[in-house]
Amino acid sequence: MSHPSSANSTNIESLLVENRVFPPSAATVSAARISGMPAYNAMCAHAERDFEGFWADLARANLSWKKPFEQVLDETNPPFYTWFADGELNASFNCLDRHLGTPVENKNAIIFESDDGKVSHITYKALHAKVSQFASALKDMGVQKGDRVVIYMPMTVEGVVAMQACARIGATHSVVFGGFSAKSLQERIKDASAVAVITANYQLRGGKELPLKAIVDEGIALGGCESVKNVIVYQRTPTACNMVAGRDSFMHEVTAKAAPVCEPVFVGAEHPLFVLYTSGSTGTPKGVQHSTAGYLLWAKLTMDWTFDLQPSDVFWCTADIGWITGHTYVAYGPLAAGATQVIFEGIPTYPNAGRFWQMIERHKVSIFYTAPTAIRSLIKAADADAAVHPDRSDLSSLRILGSVGEPINPEAWMWYYKNIGGERCPVVDTFWQTETGGHMITPLPGATALVPGSCTLPLPGIMAAIVDETGHDLPNGAGGLLVIKRPWPSMIRNIWNDPERFKKSYFPEEMGGTIYLAGDGAVRNEDNGYFRITGRIDDVLNVSGHRMGTMEIESALVAHPLVAEAAVVGRPDDLTGEAIVAFVVLKRSRPVGDEGKAIAKELRDWVGKQIGPIAKPKDIRFGDNLPKTRSGKIMRRLLRGVAKGEAITQDTSTLENPAILDQLAENL
Ligand code: WTA
Questions:
Q1: What's the pTM?
Q2: Atom of ligand 1 at shortest range from CA of 323
Q3: What's 615's DSSP letter?
Q4: pLDDT for the residue numbered 10
Q5: What kind of fold does domain 544-665 have according to CATH?
Q6: Which of 8, 547, 548, 550 for mutating ligand 1's site (highest number of atoms within 8 Å of CB)?
Q7: CB 72 within 8 A of CB 87
Q8: If you take atom 10 of ligand 1, which residue's CA is the nearest one?
Q9: Which residues of the chain register pLDDT less than 70?
């Protein structure tokens, strides 16, 4: 474990001088579900006073139980905590059936806008019917409670239907982002021993038709996927795709043949609803395992609390279902809360960079939730072309804005607040992780005074703290490690197939083995105790809000026949937050000039093939060697400096060959 990297210190300094404060208006406070700081403080005090009672009340009030629970939190086998374990319920029932016979049933669940701008609507009743019939089809194929199903789908209604249908029959889904390669997909299918893969023939993004089914075929052909008995294909476009007889079928055909009614399979509260793979600092991606009840409870509650959801809201979270944000705030939270949500198939820059703003106007979006990376790139586009500036769209329907995935720099925050929110809409900067299931530290729109660049305060019941490496509390103003001291219902339950790694990664022995280590550095403001996240403390990069492990990229690089050794670091980037820089030693002589450029391109494409385009290094630097300590450890801190173009001030006398630093500094 290392200290917050020096790369973050300038960031901290610029944040510390941030002194603008934006309290909520009196009207916002009085209309909000959590109305004012006294209401927030009272909830926190309730959780402090009667932790289990606090959560039990919420779980009874916000979920429909087939069998009510008696047990709340079980801490007898830390860190394998359980919540509501003797209760039974079904997630799909809670998202769909629960609304039938209420005014929500005829409300739009989803407003879908396709890549090419076609709009369709689906009510809760119609979505319930669609999910039920597809769930019957899965059952007909023999998919059973507890089986794993991999979903490799575009952003479509069918993607959500696939997830909900799995939940309905108690199958555990594992969604793989459509940008991951055949090899990444194969690794996930293998690790999860999936019995079925649900995919689409193609996906439409930015006017392009991109294959998905062909990648599934390629992934399965890599071997080790014998568990897969069925591949179900959503026909997104008329273009034909290869179909393997006896294994592959079309979603519309199997659905048409299936019974329209599918009784939900009720499962224990701790039944794994899904496994979602994410990058860690070492080794292969980790299958983050989530529960049914605790996860769903928090998905629903954070919709109500963080977004102050009201019945007339139109909610739009721009995240893909391949990431945790798309799980909690597209596939589950909005449905559990009975919201109307927008789902968008395409990309923010097609057919032009005004697409998001035009869509907010078109669908009268009132709550908009996106990533700082998107905001920063749209600021740039709006500066360059007045035709795509948000002032060309009517954004008056907006009432709350949200940010997720990476720290939002105060400049981008201010632009978002002014140009999108018209200085009227609170910006909720939500800090959380794949492992936390839902928001952890975030402002509440009707209570918290906002400070640009700060995620402010933990939600009620979330016992966040900043500690040193032995788990001791640090005073406000001192930077340290972000931890959560008590379990919470939506926390990660395990790493699929790897309980030892689960313990080691998140519950370090040095801290007693019971408190959750987030993997981020943070500091609390001395005056108001507000949290600021200073970035990852491990070898995980955050590129455009996507988590990437440096080790994963290094292993991909050294798998190339030309590569002897590689080290990957992050470099701050104005647009993507961090950019990937790879330092490479080849088995042959160090290439220069055009040859170097050609090999760099080949390696970049190779990484794209091995992991996915999001993992392609922005820069590749070649050297005769890498800088190492006497004991042979790669000096990553030095490489981070070289990647940033900094002058080397560190002592380099231990280096075998200091000249290699000049080589590595050379950009091709
Ligand atoms: C970072 C995404 C600062 C953080 C929901 C975390 C943030 C990682 C914020 C998790 C935020 C996420 N401010 N940093 N509001 N939100 N992060 O698992 O480093 O894809 O550990 O979950 O993103 O990324 P993940």
A1: 0.94
A2: 20
A3: G
A4: 43
A5: GMP Synthetase; Chain A, domain 3 (3.30.300)
A6: 547
A7: no
A8: 433
A9: 1-18, 654, 656
